[in-house]
Amino acid sequence: MSTDSEIFTGNFTQQEPIPEAAIEAAMAVLQHGRLHRYNTAPGELSETALLEQEFAAQTGAKYCLAVASGGYALATALRAVGVQPGDAVLTNAFTLAPVPGSIASVGAKPVFVEVTEDLTIDLDDLAAKVDQAKVLMLSHMRGHLCDMDRLMQICDAADVRVIEDCAHTMGASWNGVQSGRHGIVGCYSCQTYKHVNSGEGGLLITDDAELAARATVLSGSYMLYERHLAAPEPEVFERIKYVTPNISGRMDNLRAAILRPQLQDLDRQVARWNERYQVIEEGLRGTPGLTVVERPGSEVYVGSSIQFLLLDWSDDKVLEVVERCGRRGVELKWFGTPEPVAFTSRYDSWRYADTQRLPNSDRVLAGILDMRVPLTFSLEDCAQIARIIRSEVGSVHQAA
Ligand SMILES: *Cc1c(COP(=O)(O)O)cnc(C)c1O
User: Fold this and answer.
1) Helices (H) and strands (E) in the chain, counts
2) What pLDDT score was predicted for residue 5?
3) Residue 86 class from Cβ within 10 Å (0-12 exposed, 13-18 middle, 19+ buried)?
4) Residue 400: its pLDDT value, please?
5) Is the shortest distance between the CB of 164 and ligand 1 below 6 Å?
6) For the chain, which residues score pLDDT lower than 50?
7) Distance from C-alpha of 45 to C-alpha of 324, rounded to nearest angstrom
8) What would the CATH number be for the domain defined by 20-264?
9) DSSP letter string over 19-52?
């Protein structure tokens, strides 16, 4: 088949099956029926408590809490660091709706920071805005890590606490430090489209004892927090338990059982994602008019999705690329579209936030095309996808 006629027939939203060991562990929970994390037989350690213990060990964090979703983890982190209604919270202009949504859920106000052509938070813009807030909700959107050393310098100097949204960086690191371990708290999603899959679910890690105790009570521990295996000592809970509301959002043992074997296998999955990512990246490199997002040497990333830029193209031409690729079976998402579509939306669609002008982000967002890379794709699939994008971008670019 010539490159101008081949059509990709794979499915961009098809996950791999849940691993056998996870299915077996889930069956055991279903058979004993104790799905609630605090419903344990004498001497039994719940799957949820074990998950927390194992994820704390895996990330090197002192404390870990499992919750109902990634978005819930973000909102819990904001509450646990003490964000109050009306407070400003710095966050990325380029992210997904649950991030500003978590800020709105505590009555706080998102202050957006520009995105660079590297798809990371603009550290000069951050430095200019850092004194407007006491907290930065940093979204490692689509797995792109900024210079975390410089970011922490900027935030530490201004006494701004950093909450990391690691929905796309579970398994990633910057200069050898795992994503989620730079800020005061790291939040992860275990939702189907992220790096481990329990349908829904979230994890929160921190080294701060009071923050961990508050998050635990907030998540709905009642006074059963002593059953946690990665929580602070009971004395810490004594200090906060009367003044911390229960905002129920626990994880259950079924999801935890599904997640534990997947976390054991994370490094292998990361390597498989990156093989696929690198085949697509190589296939796209050098396409006239198309900018590959170069990954810095300090970054260990997880290529579960890939982005490229058609910078300074007209909206019509970008849309034409999306449509032409779509007709050939390649699903691209465009961050420039004025109307929110499916999972994709822009900062100016979040109209509960104060209106803000972000000219650099407008330019970059108008050029971002985004594609999922599910592990069900073979390396040959990835090569074919890259050929299709390259030929369609080429056709539209040539005609322009
Ligand atoms: C998915 C996602 C979240 C929220 O996770 P949920 O588990 O779906 O609530 C937060 N931030 C980003 C960047 C995400 O992609």
Assistant:
1) 13, 14
2) 86
3) exposed
4) 74
5) no
6) 1
7) 53
8) 3.40.640.10
9) PHHHHHHHHHHHHH---STT---TTPPPHHHHHH
Strand order across the beta sheet in which 305-309 lies: 291-292, 305-309, 368-372, 333-334
Helix, strand or coil, per DSSP, at residue 14: coil
Residue range 3-8+266-399 forms a domain whose CATH class is alpha beta
CA distances for 193 relative to 13, 147, 199, 293, 307, angstroms: 8, 26, 8, 21, 16
How many Å lie between the centroid of ligand 1 and the Cα of residue 305?
Answer: 14
Give dist(CA 36, CA 374) in Å, integer.
31
> To test the ligand 1 pocket, which listed residue (194, 195, 200, 350) has its Cβ within 8 A of the most ligand atoms?
194
Residue type for position 337: T
CATH 3.90.1150.10 domain locations along the chain = 3-8+266-399
In short, whether 139's Cβ falls inside 6 Å of ligand 1 is: yes
Average pLDDT, the chain: 97
- What pLDDT score was predicted for residue 2? 56
Using alpha carbons, select from 95, 93, 102 the residue that is nearest to residue 71.
102
CATH 3.40.640.10 domain range(s) in the chain: 20-264
Atom of ligand 1 nearest to the CA of 72: 9
Q: Would you list the DSSP string of 174-190? A: ETTEETTSSSSEEEEE-
Q: Are 64 and 181 in contact (CB under 8 A)?
A: no
- The label of the residue with tokens 């029926």 reads 33
Token couple for 27: 């069956």
User: Which of 375, 169, 389, 194 lies closest to 277 in space, CA to CA?
Assistant: 375
325 to 7, 99, 204, 343, 394: CA distances (angstroms): 9, 29, 38, 19, 11
Ligand 1: residue of 96, 119, 137, 139 to mutate (most ligand atoms within 8 A of CB) is: 96
